[in-house]
Amino acid sequence: MPHLVARNDQHPDGAKHIFLATNFDRLVVMHDTIALLKARASEFAKRARAPATEAAYAGDWGDFERWCAARDLASLPAAPETVALYLADRSARLKVSTMQRRLAAIVVTHRRAGRRFDADDPALTEVWRGIRRSCGTARRGK
């Protein structure tokens, strides 16, 4: 087992780094600056969804925004009742899977904007359950 010695160094940019020196005189960076960690976390967050999913969400959100604007309803933050009306309207021409993605896009957009959206509100869940049941995709109990 190599002998480890902790050492604090001041980086030229003013950030402190913690290094471990092994008995082989190799230095291993053990702790990055908060700014570097934030940048790294941001990059991972950008990769949380595939580019195609992000593009689909953008289109879905655009459709929801236009639908709300045409009816003088707020899209952000949207009331669960508004989303239920939107899904009911779109159920005549969209597949359930597409509406599921649109609902996900609405939830994600609210979350990214720092707004709370209650997707479990009964005004929405009952309508959504009815849409799935009438289109033949509701889950069946055993």
Number of helices: 5
Low-confidence stretches: 1-6
Q: Please list the strands of the largest sheet in the order they lie side by side.
A: 1-2-3
Helix and strand composition category: mainly alpha
Radius of gyration, in angstroms, nearest whole number: 24 Å
Morphology call:
globular
Average the pLDDT over all residues and give the rounded result: 83
Order of helices and strands: EEEHHHHH
N-to-C terminal Cα separation, in Å?
Answer: 56 Å
Biggest beta sheet attributes? 3 strands, antiparallel
Helix content: 40-55%
Number of strands: 3
In percent terms, what proportion of residues is strand? 5-15%
Characterization of this structure:
With 142 residues, the protein is mainly α. It is built from 5 helices and 3 strands. The chain has helices spanning 34-46, 51-70, 80-90, 96-112, 122-134; strands at 5-10, 16-21, 27-31. It has a 3-stranded antiparallel β-sheet, with no helix packed on it. Strand 1 (5-10) and strand 2 (16-21) form a beta hairpin. Helix 3 runs parallel beside helix 5 (122-134). The chain is globular and about 55 Å long. The model is unreliable at 1-6 (pLDDT under 50).
